[in-house]
């Protein structure tokens, strides 16, 4: 074998040096770090789109209910009537908006694909309560859909300027939103939304401190998220633009913030704001920094004040 052949063999079998390997690993690490935020952003964009689609379906169900019943669903009755059990029946069928103790999440089932769940007999109340309904969950929050045999929800109906569950009448409740208790008078029709369906909030994401996501038995989770999606006029399914009386505004909040032990406020796990569906069925992103007066007007159906959410 000639010296030329030996040199060729050495050159052909030469591997990477340690420095070269470290350089390659470093480059790969840099590329991954550059790509990761883009991947995460794309995933969150998809989750936001799914959340908006959930609310769009809820808006369609509300308006289909309005076409069939002449009004939107009611907010049901307070939690002591609604869980566990207490679903009201009339002539062998679940009561509709006027007398139903269970809340709006349950009342819209026949106007989604949930008729079979809606019509389960009274002996199956526990089954209904424990059954998650897919459109009730925002994927960004990503929590358990069933916690200790209670299916929860990430969305709440608009109870108006302020609300409470331990008294279903005025002035304890403002009763100026798009939902009212089933014993608080006739449910709300579009004719009663004098500010316009395009300028009045219907349903939006509710605030839930992230440490309470999967805990409905201790701390704040035992107050704000303990009754589940079938709940009537209660903080699990009803929120407002503030507290009162007298009125004090509470803007939508991110789940990273604590401070509202029993909720009754809107918010979400998204970074820049929460999603909400208006009474006309349109879905909007509502900023956490929304003007307080605009926020109050958006949640009041009949104050005569203009609402400008921008584009």
Could you explain the architecture of this structure?
This protein has 311 residues and is α+β, with helices and mostly antiparallel strands. Helix content is 29%, strand content 12%. The protein is built from eight helices and 13 strands. The chain has helices at residues 3-12, 18-69, 79-82, 104-107, 115-118, 125-129, 221-224, 292-299; strands spanning 89-90, 93-94, 146-147, 150-151, 155-158, 201-205, 238-239, 242-243, 248-249, 253-254, 267-268, 273-278, 283-287. The strands form five sheets. The protein has a five-stranded mixed sheet. A two-stranded antiparallel ribbon has the order 1-2. A hairpin with a 2-residue loop joins strand 1 and strand 2 (93-94).
Give the helix/strand layout:
Layout: H1 3-12, H2 18-69, H3 79-82, E1 89-90, E2 93-94, H4 104-107, H5 115-118, H6 125-129, E3 146-147, E4 150-151, E5 155-158, E6 201-205, H7 221-224, E7 238-239, E8 242-243, E9 248-249, E10 253-254, E11 267-268, E12 273-278, E13 283-287, H8 292-299
Parallel strand pairs: 5-7, 10-11
Antiparallel strand pairs: 1-2, 3-4, 5-6, 6-12, 8-9, 12-13
